[in-house]
Amino acid sequence: MAKKHQSLAQNKNVGHLIALCFYIAVGYFLYIAASNMNYIWKWNSIPDYFVYTETKTVEAPANGKLIVQDGIYYLENSDEKVKLNLDASYKFSYVLGEDVYEGDYIATKSQKKTGPILNGLWVTLKISFFAAILTFILGTIVAFMKLSSYQFLKDIATVYITIVRGTPLLVQIFLFYFIVANIFELDRFVAGVLALGIFFGAYMAEILRGAIQSIDKGQLEAANSLGITKFQAMRYIILPQAFKRALPTLVGEMIALIKDSSLVSVISITDLTKVGKEIVANTFSPFETWIVIALVYLSITSVLSYVGHKLEKRMAEKGGMS
């Protein structure tokens, strides 16, 4: 059989190169467009928003000579000996025994501190983590309610899913913050977690319900015929298979949750997005700031996507995704 001819553009490596050139061209076009707006790029200021150096200075509280006794620093004069809250980690501007006057800077100490972007990243990860736990718990419970033989449980689950999926997440965040949080005196962080968890719990419930129903009913019947209770069969036979089948969609929902967590910035939770707004307000550098914030979000979701892909691949190799 004759080998099918492959054009140059269909070559995998050439395709990668063309795609790379395309995105370089897009980036260059945006850079030129910004330059034509007389925009001044300030990339050098961005690193300080990740990690910065904090310098602490200590002023002399009184006149005197700088002395040290048993590792403790003092200012000694004819009237008193004033203890200083200093240690060897400080860099001194005066040598021991030298006269110091009140108000002089006698020592400084520099240390690295995490900047607003890293602090905002931590808040984003924390709120996404707790919201994800709530999503899985609520989604699993509601999925079983939808599959229940009790009609009132089905109705409760159906109404919940319909309302949540039919209204915007942003509106739900406002409802939780201004109504639920005020009634129960909840912290804004808790309100954000609840809003995200309840919103994505509805989608998770439908995903799990579909995955459970995709498992052959004959397996449950076979388990019952062997004396295995319905609860045991669901726990040890049906649910593990359902979670494996739903894994790609579940990972996608978790990625969406992380991205949509940016909406909690509207209730003054200092996550990545709110940090971005504050940096723009302080530096008037919207392009650099939002590009960096977007890259941070992309790094989080890329890691989660990679982990999900590896899990899918491992399960597929073991025959667990079928």
Would you give an account of this structure?
This protein is α+β, with helices and mostly antiparallel strands. The protein has three domains: 10-39; 52-114, OB fold (Dihydrolipoamide Acetyltransferase, E2P); 116-317, MetI-like fold, CATH 1.10.3720. It is built from nine helices and seven strands. It has a four-stranded antiparallel β-sheet with strand order 4-3-2-6, with no helix packed on it. It has a three-stranded antiparallel β-sheet with strand order 1-7-5. Strand 3 (72-76) and strand 4 (81-84) form a beta hairpin. The protein starts with 11 loop residues before the first helix and ends in a 5-residue tail after the last helix.
Short description:
61% of the residues lie in helices and 12% in strands. The protein is of the alpha+beta class. The mean pLDDT is 89.
Task: Indicate the topology.
Elements: H1 12-36, E1 51-59, E2 64-69, E3 72-76, E4 81-84, E5 91-92, E6 99-100, E7 105-114, H2 116-147, H3 151-165, H4 169-183, H5 188-213, H6 217-225, H7 230-260, H8 272-283, H9 286-317
Antiparallel strand pairs: 1-7, 2-3, 2-6, 3-4, 5-7
Features:
alpha+beta, 322 residues, 12% strand, 3-stranded antiparallel β-sheet, OB fold (Dihydrolipoamide Acetyltransferase, E2P), 9 helices, MetI-like fold
